[in-house]
Amino acid sequence: xxxxxxxxxxxxxxxxxxxxxxxxxxxxxxxxxxxxxxxxxxxxxxxxxxxxxxxxxxxxxxxxxxxxxxxxxxxxxxxxxxxxxxxxxxxxxxxxxxxxxxxxxxxxxxxxx
Length: 113
Hints:
Number of strands: 0
Structural class: mainly alpha
Largest sheet: none
Strand content: under 5%
Helix content: over 70%
Radius of gyration: 19 Å
């Protein structure tokens, strides 16, 4: 006999933990990456993938279908708006002349002797 509630709990907690790991990884990327564009990429991926996984895990734990539907609408909204917002920020930075680090610029922390 298969315990469906146990399988649902395992799947939902797996999604929540995976999404949390993605968020922590993105936070580390914000601290460790060398320039604005790579940090923006870490934030954008974290915002989209990490939040989506957490929401899907919450959908599996929802007490009713209406709560799951509301969480589904939030997931669709985040999935559509987060990449657009990240692109808008990157485009605005590019338009004002903020350029990414290339080549020799990436060798930060080394002595220039």
